[in-house]
Fold this sequence. Notes:
Mean pLDDT: 93
CATH class of the domain at 19-80 and 168-334: Alpha Beta
Distance between the termini: 44 Å
Low-confidence stretches: 336-340, 342-346
Helix content: 25-40%
Largest sheet: 8 strands, antiparallel
Number of helices: 12
Amino acid sequence: xxxxxxxxxPTLLAPDRLPQHAxxxxxxxxxxxxxxxxGSVIATAADGQxxxxxxxxxxxFYPRSALKPLQAVAMVRxxxxxxxxxxxxxxxxxxxxxxxxxxxRRILDLHGLTPGDLENSTDLPYGAREREDWLGxxxxxxxxxxxxxxxxxxxxxxxxxxxxxxxGYLDPAHPLQQLVAHTVVDLTGxxxxxxxxxxxxxxxxxxxxxxxxxxxxxxxxxxxSSGAEAAVARAMRRHPEMVAGQDRDVTALMRLVPGLxxxxxxxxxxxxxxxxxxxxxxxxxxxxxxxxxxxxxxxLAALDVDTSPLxxxxxxxxxxxxxxxxLLQAAEFLAAPKTPNAPEAL
Length: 346
């Protein structure tokens, strides 16, 4: 059966309805530009003031899995109490390693639940190495292997803690999702401009890069205090391998820059919070993953963060016949300074 969303002729968007993204990253091959990744980016101060921007950071976008730390804050506010490594997994897009799958199962076991209570979609492990090992052992797509299983286990657990129905916990009208929605508004300072459903089945909100940056700055600055924001940030920093995986760039970023909080999302999304409350939000318009980290490192450097340990994340060699013949790197998208907090200048 054809999905209702596909049962009609799609409406083409006029150019004036498309976000006015800027060129953020460029791949060259022997001195010739081979590919250009467009997108938008913003950096904010602890008070929400705009420090720098490129493209159209006030255009609505879907943060995808970068929303997970905010969802985790909502669950902690609702009484979810997990060891740090499992709370980090609740905010994760994990690679599907045994430690991730076992962690999600532990969350379920702690609250009298089983994998049958999960309502996320099934998938193979997200990490390339993890997927290869999984398939080599005869594994198939499951809900536990899917990269959002930690979040879904935590959502089901939060329902048990509060006496809410576990079945149907993804319904936008469910008390859990209502709490998540209120928490997202609180942390971002924005009312969502639209709602939809994420790939794993969770309600998803259209926000701006500025709003998401504000939320990550708040989480990152709270880590030394108490409260739900501090608990989530502390867990993610202590266990970055649970937030992503051993070979993932988000894990490396948090390990290499002390105090930094990071979460990626499908379709070219990257969020970063710094201990002083500054934050960075990146959206690559074509949804490509490879430009996300070079752009992020470029913005961190512009904020005077020591990025010398991040050289391998800042640029990727382009190979020809097994030898370097070019480079994927950030473009000079910050060359023209932006007037802080003046939307008309963005």
